[in-house]
Amino acid sequence: MDASATSDEALLLRYAGGDVAAFEALYERHELPLWRFTLRLCGGQRANAQELVQEVWFAVTREAPRFKPDARFTAWLYTIARNRVIDRHRTARHYASLDAIDGTGATLAESLADPDAPQPPQQAEQAEQGAAILRALETLPEDQREAFVLQTEGGLSVEEIANITGTTLETAKSRLRYARHKLKALLRDYA
Amino acid sequence: MNPTGNDDELDDAYRRASAGDAGRPGAATRSAILAEARAAALRRSPAANDSRMWWRAAAGVSVLGVALLLWRQVDHPLAPLDQTAAVAQAPAPAASAPAIVEEPASEAPRDANAISRAPEPFPANASMERQVAADAAQYAKKPASAAPAPPPASEAESRLAARSELGRSFAAPSLFERQFPDAWSSTTPPRALWILEDAAGNVLGSGIAEGSDWQVVRTNLMKEFADRNIGPWDIITVRNAQAVEVRIGVARLQ
């Protein structure tokens, strides 16, 4: 099959024309990266992230006919997601969630089926390292964390990050550079 | 692997950690999103557009009919008699009432111009006024039967429509799932559920709105929260995981 026929942009256009299967394919493709992006920007609060990804995808279904195919779908999707997260932060006091989960490591503990069960040393080391990375990420300034997650989860280019965040190319680059530098420093301290 | 080494190693280590920690959105979220995608596609389908066009046309005819009626009743009480002279081809209003229903859309602007250019109407007398009143009464019945307007939205529904622009209604399925897990997954959920929030949006209580009677729920809640006012209900219709529609009323304790 022609690759352009299954590109994100082609799928969205097909959905705008009424092809629901095209939306499902698009959703499958981006569900997890978008979820992780949202979760990281919500400080690991799953309930909030869950509501937000739903809002983002609902917006995609609503706005699909207005999508301009000369733009990249991913950049469009993460722009919507970022705006929703910002809106949510602004109105956070109105949306205080009953089951919000503290993002400082508790979510990782949940994901481990049984933290007391014996693990091979390598797995245990990886899990500890993973937890340390996520904790380190939480300590980054918001704009640096956002740039880093847009690139690692969304796969966006520096130029796209600059466009989405409304900054210059140089600023986006330096945010990424600072983010990585700080993460490495924090991980060295951890080690 | 050493994530403190080069950038790629750091990124890989982060991606592994994130994938292991994040899991995925709940099944209910996924179902709600896919259901909304189907619904949105359906709303955009030509059949739905045809239906909307019909309602718009019907509403337009209603508005014109009402406008003509008001114009005749309030501003130009003697218009029917004058109109028969000014618009020769129009049927006499009193004698041929059904024709009037068809006329407003095409004739109203022309009538208005004719009247504005015409000399002052004849002096009124008692029989003329009675005739005008009879005409008005007859016309008053017609627009409603010729073009039924959709039922007026309640205040809460109007407010909900406004709030949905802010994304509030989109949060409803998650709220639904959290507050009513049984109803969320049931194929026969209650038709209406209520949620009471405090001013900060924290849920204070929730339950089934028996008979969808929001007033009864409010009365019971006011007994429970003596001396506190309870705001109006925002009523949201959402589909549960089984795609069954349920109405959720949300009110705030003030």
Give an account of the 3D structure.
The complex is a heterodimer of chains A (191) and B (254). By secondary structure, chain A is mainly α. Chain A has helices at 8-16, 20-41, 46-63, 73-90, 106-111, 121-138, 142-152, 158-165, 169-190. Chain A is 69% helix and 0% strand. Chain B is of the alpha+beta class. Chain B has helices at residues 7-22, 27-43, 46-75, 79-86, 97-102, 104-117, 126-146, 155-164, 168-179, 181-185, 214-224, and strands at residues 192-197, 203-208, 234-239, 245-252. The model of chain B is unreliable at 78-170 (pLDDT under 50). The chains are: A mainly alpha (191), B alpha+beta (254). Chains A and B meet through helix 2, helix 3, helix 5, helix 6 and helix 7 of A and helix 1, helix 2 and helix 9 of B.
Share in β-strands of chain B: 5-15%
**Mean pLDDT reading of chain B:** 63
N-to-C span of chain A: 48 Å
Chains forming the largest contact: A-B, 57 and 41 residues
| Share of helix of chain B, binned | 55-70%
Please tell me the overall pLDDT of chain A. 82
Oligomer state equals heterodimer
Number of helices of chain A: 9
Low-confidence stretches of chain A: 93-118
Number of helices of chain B: 11
Structural class of chain B: alpha+beta
Record field, number of beta strands of chain A: 0
SSE ordering of chain B: HHHHHHHHHHEEHEE
SSE order of chain A, one letter for each helix or strand: HHHHHHHHH
Gap from first CA to last CA of chain B: 57 Å
Strand content of chain A: under 5%
Share in helix of chain A: 55-70%
Shape of chain A: globular
